[in-house]
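A reminder from the course coordinator: this example appears on the midterm review sheet, so study it carefully.

Given structure:
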């Protein structure tokens, strides 16, 4: 009875907040679960228009761009749009002092000028199939974990092998609903992807880290690429005579714009969410892991920013690193705030109490699930410790931190390999080639004082924040030899190490026989001390408890589904193709502050400030503003820039197509608003908003700002 009342209240509150929609849905299940709801909200197309394996559909124009973004095809000749921050590293790699495309922007004025990119791929989904039965064949609940995993792995392999028979595709199986369902993904991967255009960072990254995760937003976060194929329209490695790929489908682009309340759909690759975790998980993050990680990153950012502000060359070297450190740092803060505002832990605890009552009221249920929450409690108490130690160690040697030590770690790997395989081994040779590149790029973006200042701060903060059982042996040495003076220890290290010397390292790569000497280098030693703690202790415990949680999650998910048989659960994000739908809508950010749903060029001019790096508006844009040369991109005397909607999105959805009720492209997704970033853990329909670039701003920049309007000729524009 109580449960019914709660459900009714939930239902009413959803109804009151309009059409905000939680959920990242599987395109193959649209027909079954969502299409009715979507059509009621205004969507004019069918499930088959979105996803079909029988004829061309929208899914044929949505791709994985690079390693972690989404992109979409916008012309019959393989033209693709994604975010500027998704194309960033490609743009950066083509940049040098004489042609700095990050600063100036880049526009190919003909096909010949389009720039090929090493290691950039675009992945099309051919089809996805539910293969749960085949994957779980021979598995039963009595089997021990290890055995179960073994059978599943074997079954997955045979499913994949079968899918790959002579078709040139690639395939993989992913688990859904915490391992209660499995889907096969068959994909076609294109590797000749060329850069066509990118606005200057002062447009594509306007607002920088200051505006990141925030509304009001004015970032022109897009870049343009083109997919090339062999003459047979199949994937082919880069060759000058490859031809533009002819896609089965491309998105038509609407110039009509958006109004509050309009239907929107986001079609892309959300990376990861944890919506069904127990309250212990949230407590672990809110009370321990996030605050500590935020704290250490604050220290990192303070140091890096100090140096960046002192010298423009250092700013360039550390821009991407600072952006990446700052991105999660800021999101974590927002998540804590949002979860607290929602009283998320109490909510979870209340629903867990209701769930437990339901479980205990039936003997079979009691036998199956009676201990579940207790097991969660004990597992999280251990998992939390290991998880913090793991993340914190990665903050020390990964994530752009002690870079000299991290570089030393890579060389230590080479030393080991040479000892095992000898200098003439093929693996050794290819590692040497990789390290040569890696070393060059390391020093291109390295300024020693930053690293030297950062290292002792990181070592000290680990020491105070993480329990002593996880302290690497090096701390004993610091105490003994340096009387606990970490700075002195680090200064000595920097005096003696060769890992700050570019030429000397190159010399080592030329003379592999000498390599042994590196074993004595203090940076290698520090790396090994940290790495030993990481591998021999932290990861061992982390994996143990992580696996335990994995199996608890699978059982909990089953139980939750039995508890609410009428509810359509959406599976947690796992970087597979999903649909989120909702409507264009502003929100109340805080007491008395209501945010309008769109931003315009006026806001860019308001933010303009030559003294603040993130807010320098390019002269050419100011000129367009003065002359009001807006063409067909104008609305109400200005140009729209970004808009908000209620689609449930997360990291990975960057670059995703945002379409209107007719399936026409109206925007490109690139961020979420800060007050709602806890949506990875709990969705609040009043506050969770995705931020999209208005496609008209992108077209305005291409056409009016860059003078590359010829690109519009191949697009399908709907006026
Ligand atoms: N917050 C967006 C995302 O998670 C944009 C990140 C890139 N921009 C930045 N200023 N760091 O990827
Ligand atoms: N910027 C994010 C990305 O790169 C998308 C924002 C989000 O997390 O929703 O995927």
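Designed residues:
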């Amino acid at each position: 009875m109580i449960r019914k009342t709660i459900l009714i209240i939930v239902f009413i509150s959803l109804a009151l907040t309009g059409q905000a929609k939680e959920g990242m849905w599987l395109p193959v299940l649209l027909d079954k679960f969502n299409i009715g709801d979507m059509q009621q909200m205004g969507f004019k197309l069918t499930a088959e228009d979105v996803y079909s394996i029988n004829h061309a559909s929208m899914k044929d124009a949505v791709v994985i761009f690079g390693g972690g973004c989404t992109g979409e095809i916008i012309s019959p000749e393989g033209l693709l749009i994604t975010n500027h921050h998704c194309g960033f590293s490609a743009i950066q790699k083509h940049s040098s002092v004489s042609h700095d495309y990050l600063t100036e922007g880049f526009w190919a004025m003909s096909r010949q000028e389009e720039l090929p990119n090493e290691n950039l791929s675009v992945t099309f989904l051919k089809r996805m199939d539910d293969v749960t039965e085949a994957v779980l064949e021979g598995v039963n609940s009595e089997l021990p974990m290890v055995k179960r995993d073994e059978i599943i792995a074997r079954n997955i392999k045979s499913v994949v092998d079968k899918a790959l028979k002579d078709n040139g595709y690639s395939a993989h199986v992913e688990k859904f609903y915490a391992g209660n369902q499995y889907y096969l993904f068959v994909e076609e991967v294109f590797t000749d992807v060329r850069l066509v255009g990118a606005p200057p960072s002062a447009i594509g990254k306007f607002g920088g880290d200051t505006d990141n995760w925030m509304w009001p937003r004015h970032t022109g976060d897009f870049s343009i690429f083109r997919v090339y194929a062999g003459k047979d329209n199949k994937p082919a490695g880069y060759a000058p005579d490859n031809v533009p790929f002819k896609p089965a489908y491309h998105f038509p682009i609407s110039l009509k714009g958006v109004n509050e309340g309009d239907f929107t759909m986001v079609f892309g690759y959300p990376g990861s969410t944890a919506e069904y975790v127990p309250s212990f998980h949230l407590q672990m993050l809110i009370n321990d892991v996030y605050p500590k990680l935020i704290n250490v990153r604050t220290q990192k950012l303070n140091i890096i920013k100090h140096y960046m502000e002192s010298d423009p060359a250092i700013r360039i070297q550390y821009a991407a690193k600072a952006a990446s450190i700052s991105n999660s740092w800021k999101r974590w803060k927002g998540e804590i705030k949002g979860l607290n505002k929602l009283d998320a832990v109490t909510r979870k605890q209340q629903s867990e109490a209701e769930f437990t009552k339901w479980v205990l009221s039936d003997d079979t249920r009691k036998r199956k699930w009676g201990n579940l929450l207790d097991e969660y409690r004990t597992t999280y108490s251990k998992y939390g410790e290991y998880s913090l130690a793991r993340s914190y160690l990665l903050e020390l040697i990964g994530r752009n931190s002690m870079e000299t030590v991290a570089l030393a770690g890579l060389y230590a790997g080479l030393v080991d390999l040479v000892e095992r395989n000898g200098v003439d081994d093929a693996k050794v040779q290819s590692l040497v080639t990789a390290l040569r590149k890696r070393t060059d790029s390391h020093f291109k973006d390295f300024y020693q004082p930053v690293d030297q200042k950062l290292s002792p701060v990181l070592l000290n903060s680990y020491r105070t924040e993480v329990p002593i059982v996880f302290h690497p042996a090096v701390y004993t040495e610091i105490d003994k030899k340096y009387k606990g003076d970490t700075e002195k220890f680090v200064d000595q290290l920097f005096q003696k190490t060769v890992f700050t010397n570019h030429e000397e390292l190159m010399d080592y790569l030329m003379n592999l026989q000498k390599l042994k000497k590196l074993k004595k280098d203090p940076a290698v030693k520090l790396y090994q001390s940290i790495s030993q703690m990481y591998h021999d202790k932290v990861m061992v415990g982390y994996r143990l408890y992580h696996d335990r949680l994995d199996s608890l999650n699978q059982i909990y998910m089953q139980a939750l589904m039995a508890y609410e048989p009428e509810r359509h659960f959406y599976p947690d994000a796992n970087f597979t193709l999903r649909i989120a739908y909702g409507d264009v809508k502003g929100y109340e950010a805080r007491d008395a502050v209501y945010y309008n749903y769109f931003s315009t060029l006026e806001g860019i001019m308001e933010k303009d400030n030559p003294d603040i790096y993130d807010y320098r508006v390019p002269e050419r844009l100011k000129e367009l503003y003065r002359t009001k040369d807006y063409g067909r991109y104008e609305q109400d005397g200005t140009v729209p820039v970004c808009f908000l909607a209620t689609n449930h999105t997360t990291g990975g959805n960057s670059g995703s197509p945002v379409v209107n009720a007719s399936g026409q492209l109206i925007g490109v997704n690139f961020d979420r608003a800060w007050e709602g970033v806890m949506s990875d853990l709990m969705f609040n329909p009043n506050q969770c908003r995705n931020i999209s670039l208005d496609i008209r701003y992108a077209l305005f920049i291409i056409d009016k700002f860059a003078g590359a309007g010829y690109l519009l000729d191949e697009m399908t524009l709907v006026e």
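Residues 649-654, 670-672 surround glutamic acid (ligand 2) (CB under 6 Å). Residues 331 and 619 are 32 Å apart (CA to CA).
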